[in-house]
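Figure 2 data, in text form.
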Amino acid sequence: MEIDFACFNFEHGGACRRSESPDDMPGSYDYAGLVRVAGDGGRWPHVLVMGEGDWYGCCGGKGAWDAAAAMREAGGRAYVPLVCDLPRGWEPYAPVIFVNAQAIVIRRFYDPLLADHAAHNRNLLVASAAGRSKVSRVRATHGDLFSGDARLADARTFTRLAQEEIPYLLAGD
């Protein structure tokens, strides 16, 4: 099976407004742009990395799960959203990896909220195509907006992941 992969930046994850009430966090979203790009021509990739999932991890992942539901309701795949984080704790504007769990087996995801989270495995998805044992790795990232030195330092952390025996995909904005 050939895995279809896509990566794009969706500005602020479609956030329309930030809620003033903690009971309504993160606020409202318009997922029309996400649906249009992800489902372009009926494509619906198996793995989709979207930059700027603003507040997608708040309130039990409401933004991420609503985005997955919007894609599914538009005829897309049954995506599982994996909310990532950003280097240096840059607020909750991190990428999100959407995985079609019917075609891709998630072996591991280093969730930023779990105890084994570390810079060397930040946003790392270890997965295989359904029915296959060979794993691949996908890592989502977002470069520093203000510092070229910080972007270079972050990029240097990726070199240790370049191992020929394990396919690796780095997706970033």
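Caption note: The two ends are 27 Å apart (CA to CA).
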